[in-house]
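Why does residue order matter? Because the sequence determines the fold. Keep that principle in mind as you read this record.
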Amino acid sequence: MSILACYNRNVLGIKQHSIYIVREFGIFMGKKEDRLNQIISFVQINKVVSYKDLSDSLGVSTMTIRRDLEQLASQNMLKLIRGGAIYYQTQDNAVPSYILQNQGELFIEEKTLIGIKACSLLELNDTFMIDSGSTAFCLAQAVPKDTNFTIICWSLNVIQELTAKPSCKLIVGGGVYHPEVQMFEGPEGVNLLRNSRASKLFLSAGGFHETLGITTPLSYETEMKRAAIESSLTKILIMDSSKFGRVCQSFLTDISSVDVIVTDSKISRYYQDFIRDKGIKLILA
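Structure:
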């Protein structure tokens, strides 16, 4: 493996005294090739790049960057996503697949507090939607047993939790069941959501990035989530602080699509300021 060292913080606009590692399949040579090497190095270190960041850092057009990324993606050196690219991981070093049970064991205290805080936004006789995921389950746990709500949901663990609350009227979206996330999805569920209306949506996601938007690790989740976004008056993103700055494989929606974000108090000052500057209401649990 070859190593390139760069001591100019302006080369890629991110880090000073960074070491850029080029993968085993070789180093490109020449002007364009030097730019490709810099892109590879940047992706390997930062895990995610955007067209704009690379264009600004390397002094070339976004169209040139787009072509470069397409070439690198064709050689399996990175993976294209909406607005940029992410680090390509081979099967040998790939991150384990998303499993809801595993996620439920992470940041339990933070997710519980987020669920309680999100629940405080509910009003008497509300009709609302609850997304799938471990934080959504914490919200379902926090829903009072003796309050009249109409709840539209499509996740088995959320449904099971809410069936113990007889005052709640449940409307359940069906389709193919995915045991790894305990959610149902398919044309039946999507049509149900598109033909329903809710005052609030409690949306979950796997990543939130200032330039690449809100993302999710599983592509089959996106259609259900987008249908819920379209059918809800107020969109409330419930997400623990570890997910800010993270980018997952599948683009879900732009940051501007959400009205409120409920997260824990460990979120960085940078993202607190960024969210508020965007006119999004930030609630810390």
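Residues 1-29, 90-97 have pLDDT under 50 and may be disordered.
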